[in-house]
UniProtKB/TrEMBL annotation:
Low complexity composition bias: residue spans: 325-338
Name assigned to this protein: Uncharacterized protein
Extent of Basic residues compositional bias: 354-367
Species annotation: Chlamydomonas incerta
Taxon lineage: Eukaryota, Viridiplantae, Chlorophyta, core chlorophytes, Chlorophyceae
Bias kind Pro residues: ranges: 58-71, 339-349
Length: 373
């Protein structure tokens, strides 16, 4: 069992069960369907919680340690390694049990349509597979692999490793990586049998990052899997000297709201749904020498008000159009890059807030309050 705390971080649940028998419950507040549709149950709960005093400051950064040694690249002349230039070719290689890897010849983008010829999904992968660009120490030459947020297309068997190396990864995880480590592409494995997604000597483009002052605390709070002991090592004080705003430049040469590096970070994968429920994916995400680039960054104000996961749900809501009765004009303080979304407006008195007592549709139970771990 796992539980989520008020910041959306997943922790090991207490070793006991909660059993309720004939227990009437009384709702001091009730979320509206509009608020849930907008932010999801957990996001709506965190928004209401934001009306209370802000939580205490989190601990400071964790010092980094030495990085592990280098690893060999995929062979460029091995017949078992496919040379791919399109998303469809990459999918074909993943679906071919005789292939051990794919060498990207250029930038590649995946979409759902690339899997139409792959047969039954998710593609079962029973042997290790490596997706790589050409080996180089110049990250500006890494090809961009845009995974398009495709969901649950490949399933790793017991002990299978999907390795990504010498690539720039983009659109690989729709939810925050710190709160839900994993890859959308990879479906949950059926058992805890040692499956792994290994990202090594690559670059990650993250949809959004938490403020720099809590980046180390978020990642270091996640325990490492038993098979990969040690400390979580991250760098988050990297500079951007001589960066450019030219969007035609390689990602690592461009200026970003923030950046850092996962030097040696290993976490058990899990997904988080809109209710804040964590589901184990039964594979490990292991990142070694992986700089990350933040496309957007949460502000301290947003995180203090809503928590990291609630702030993410505010900036990336489930529905795009707010209601004027519940949301007001945007506040520039909530995100360092411009947000197209308006801020939630202040709600009336805590005991009975306007718009929060709509009866549920007929035949449907009221939404239940979610426990904060």
């Amino acid at each position: 069992m796992r539980a989520t705390d008020a910041s959306g971080r997943v922790t090991n649940a207490p070793l006991y069960e909660l059993h309720m028998v004939r227990v009437p419950y009384l709702c001091e507040q009730q979320m509206s369907m509009e608020c849930i549709a907008r932010l999801g149950p957990l996001g709506c709960s965190l928004y209401l919680r934001s009306l209370s005093p802000s939580p205490a400051p989190v601990p400071g950064p964790v010092p980094a340690g030495p990085a592990p040694g280098p690893a060999p690249a995929v062979s460029t002349d091995d017949p078992a390694v496919a040379r791919v230039a399109t998303g469809a070719q990459l999918v074909a290689a993943l679906a071919d049990p005789s292939k051990t890897g794919a060498l990207l010849l250029n930038d590649v983008a995946l979409s759902d349509s690339d899997f139409t010829a792959a047969g039954a999904l998710p593609i079962p992968r029973a042997t290790n597979f490596t997706i790589a660009g050409r080996q180089t120490t110049d990250q500006a030459l890494f090809p961009v692999l845009n995974l398009g947020f495709v969901k649950s297309k490949v399933r790793l068997g017991g002990g299978v490793v999907l390795k990504l190396q010498y690539v720039v990864l983009r659109d690989f995880r729709a939810t925050p990586l710190g709160q839900s480590p994993g890859f959308d592409l990879v479906a949950s494995s059926t058992t805890e049998a040692g499956a792994m997604v290994l990202v090594q000597d690559s670059v990650m483009m993250l949809r959004i990052c938490v403020p720099r002052n809590i980046q180390g605390e978020i990642m270091s709070s996640i325990p490492r899997p038993p098979g990969l002991p040690g400390s979580q090592i991250s760098l988050y004080n990297k500079t951007q000297a001589n960066c450019t705003n030219n969007t035609a430049s390689a990602p690592v040469l461009r200026c970003w709201p923030d950046l850092g590096e996962y030097v040696d970070v290993a976490v058990a994968g899990f997904d988080i749904d809109a209710f804040g429920r964590a589901t184990a994916t039964h594979y490990t995400l292991y990142m070694v020498r992986v700089p990350y680039l933040c496309e957007r960054q949460m502000t301290d104000e947003c995180v203090a008000a809503l928590g990291p996961l609630g702030c993410f749900l505010y900036l990336f809501p489930r529905t795009p159009s707010p209601s004027p009765s519940l949301f007001r004009s945007p506040s520039p303080a909530m995100a360092r890059s411009p947000s197209p979304l308006p801020l939630p407006s202040p709600l009336p008195s805590p005991s009975r807030r306007a718009g929060l007592h709509h009866p549920p549709p007929r035949g449907r139970r009221r939404p239940q309050p979610q426990a904060q771990g």
